[in-house]
Amino acid sequence: MTRRERLRRCYFNLDLDRPAVYSRTLFPVNDSSYDELKTYLHTHTELKPCWDSTRFESDYSFESSVEPYSQDFEPSAYTPL
Q: Which residues pair with 65 in a beta bridge?
């Protein structure tokens, strides 16, 4: 079964050829206890590369102000500059 067919079957809640398993891919550096697992995952799975989402973030400037409402509640307002 191709990964495209597997994905389609997941969306439509149909039977698959194997169970879905999640495994993290960011293992500790210089830790040989993960070598066997990393080798197995590399040869028997379709690991997707990780990507850094922080490159899409940008620094936005905000102005913060407190708007008094009552003694018990003071809502804060954040407006972009």
A: 77
Q: By residue range, what is the domain housing residue 38?
A: 21-47
Number of folded domains in the chain? 1
CA distance 10 to 12: 5
How is 22-80 classified by DSSP, letter by letter?
-----PPTT-GGGHHHHHHHHHHS-PPPP--GGGG-----EEEEE----SS---EEEEE
pTM: 0.39
Q: Domain for residue 71, yes or no? A: no
Q: What is the pLDDT of residues 34-45, one digit of tens each?
A: 889 888 888 877
Residue tagged 């850094």 (tokens): 52
Residue 58 lies in a domain: no
